[in-house]
Amino acid sequence: MADDEASPLLTSDASPRAEETASSGPLLESTPLLSDSSSTPRYDGTEDTREYTASVLSAASSRSSQRSKSSKHGTRRISYIAMFILAVLMIAIMILAFILPDAVQEYAKEAAVLEPTNLSIEEITMNGVRARVQANFRLDANRVGNNAVRRVGRAVTWVVREVGNEETEVNVYLPEYDGVLLGTATVPPLAFKLRGGKTTTVDFVTDIKPGDAEGYRGIVNQWLDGKLHELRLQAKAQVPIRSGILPLGTHAISESLVFEGQSLYRSFSSLFFTKKVPSLPKYNITRINVHDVPVPGEDKMQLGADVTITAFNKYPVSLYFPKLAFELLVPSCQPYDQILVAAALTSPVEVHANSDVELNVRGIVKEIPKSLVRVCPHSESSPLDMFLDHYMHGEDATVYVRGGKQLSVPDWVGDILSSITVPIPFPGHNFDSILKEFSLTDVDFTLPDPFAEPGDPNADPKVSGTILVTAAIPSEMNFQVNVTNIRATSDVFYRKKKFGELNVRDWQPANSTETKVSELKIQSRITDAPLNIINSDVFSEVVQEVLFGNDKLMLDIKALVDVKVETVLGQLVLKDVPAEGKIPVKRLPRSLPGGPLDGLDPQVGDVKIIDTTKNSVTIQALVNVTNPTPYTATIPYVNIHVLCNNSIVGEATARGLKMKRGNNTNVLVEATWDPSMGGGDGPRVGRNLISQYLSGWNTTLTIKAHRNSIPSAPVLGEALSHLNITVDTPKLQLPGETEDDKSRFIRDATFHIFSSTASFTLVSPLQHNTLYITSVNATAYYNHTDPVGHIKHDLPFEAPPGVSETPKLPVDWSMGSVGYDALKKALGSQLKLDAFAIVGVRVDSWVETVWYQGKGIGAHIRM
């Protein structure tokens, strides 16, 4: 018969009768150190109790057989009846002792039922803990499947009605760790009823002494590191067994528990059952309150955190924990290394069986270790950055917990707790909605540097403005916070389509103010933040909405913000705080009758021709323009096409332009008149435009960007090319201009009847260049339709800057016409005439033929 006997406190969850662990009688306690959070462990000693009962019954049978042999010789003189009874009894005992032990053991295994009712820690002593174990034990023959075994078991338990043990000491070892003693438990004398249907109530107090702390540390650290592939525990005890007053000897019991892979195997007499490897119990952090804590006796503050943790105790185990001190650590740069950041103290807590447990913890951070904020080698992040990155993105961060210096518990408790470092998942907080409002005001735009290479940050347009942010302070944060600097990388969307990236890579000064409970107003002025346009089509939609839309324009922004925060512990940097908000974009005024850009009102002042070709004229002009938008802009370089009737007639270039709100005077613009850029029909379109402009007609020009408008940012130029901005052709300022003769290039005329000549007063818009009239073919009309005379002149003459008089040009009068008669009648006075002329003009190399139609020209009639 095997002597290896024990009964574990923890058994498989598949046990049909019990859910918790307890020890009764001489049963050996083998409770896992860590509970299983994935499934409720069940405390059921049924199988082990069967083994134990089988051993006890077998031992009782053996001892009875020996006693019967020793008394055999003393019964020979007894009557035949006594001899017969004794012989029958001897034969029965011999049969029980030598023939039936295997059947008895099988009966004990299947019939034994152990129902633990409670396990509680009564007291923590200087040498260990005092635990109270309560359970019910019985034999249930109906659980035995084999009829023969069931009959034999009932017969034996009728003979041996009760067994018990003397006081026993059980030692638990770690064979794979040089046989380190894990702990020792003392089991008091107990007795068990073996008759079917009889229940034994077990209720005893045992002292448990912990073993070598190194054993605990080795197991836990290997398990936490994922290197514990197999763990074997071995329990040993010398158990004295008796039946009533009859001693049944001392039995050496040894039991092994093997943790292997994902299963726990318990080896004893061909008995195996499986169980998942234990893990940390599930828990919830129901409250976190981080606040300032005054330092006793000093005029400074430190950071405190009050945390409430709840869990459900699903075992029939009751415990009492006094105040315990712990150290909190976070991962360092190096693997398997941690940084001490805080000390924590738990409140006393009573753990009741099958009930919720609430634990209150207070932690204190006295200062920020330098190693916590120091950037790790070959990285851009510090250990604090990495910890906060997980926490603020809703991911579980890792906090390591280790026992600290204990003040209210025995030394052995502190030794064990300080020898074990346990990683605890710290649930993250999703900060996606921490920024409630986001706005950008006082916006200035700067176009890219024209000489920057594509891809260079200087090749992007830049935005300056005031950021206003309303941040929702998490309810857990109840300490003074002051934001000093911010920076961000953000994506900008319009109607859920991303069109740009606004990157503030450098730290920008910021300040913060608490506006009301749980709200923080942050203000910062960003300067020259690059705006990288990545989708020109969507950006052009935005610009069109700004210029011509009617609905409220809102842009969406998604950003990762870095924040420098001043706290009582010093400056912290929070990286990649997710921010999502909307940017309201101001539209242009809608009050102008000609549209939002009607208020540009460009006026050309000083005009200077700086270059000419046969087909083109390049001029410099000082332009006065009104900026009707609520924005300012700095334009280092921009080139735009000038169109008329969808045909390019020239281009204009501005350099170093700074557009402020309202009036902008003396803006230097360089423009090139070259209708040949418009293709085959361009010269005709350009000729008609000049002619209409000289004739005082209301003409318009279309300004349009193109891909190379901003050479360093072709995508931006392409986006703006979708916009056609039509403006009135700027009026030139002419010398001596009055309201009556505004924009008239022929101010008046003098007709000499007898010499048949005429001279004209011309006003040139050029202040630095001489215009040459190469030919004139003109007709003067009275009353719009009646010809007065015709001029045809092919000799060139000058039209210098300012006001000048033409030479006398020959006139061929229309004799007998109504117009000529009216001319004669007006002799010595003035007559209003109209004129239509085809005029050849030249400026240096540029030559053009235009037509001119003048109305209401004041003509002086002389002899």
Automatic annotation (TrEMBL):
Residues 477-586 form the Tag1 C-terminal domain. It comes from the Eukaryota. Keywords: Membrane, Transmembrane, Transmembrane helix. GO terms for cellular component: fungal-type vacuole membrane. The chain crosses the membrane at residues 78-100. InterPro entries: Ig_Tag1-like_4th, Ig_Tag1-like_5th, Tag1, Tag1_C. It holds the Pfam family Tag1_C. Residues 26-41 have a biased composition (Low complexity). This is Pre-rRNA processing protein. It comes from Zalerion maritima. The lineage of its organism: Eukaryota, Fungi, Dikarya, Ascomycota, Pezizomycotina.
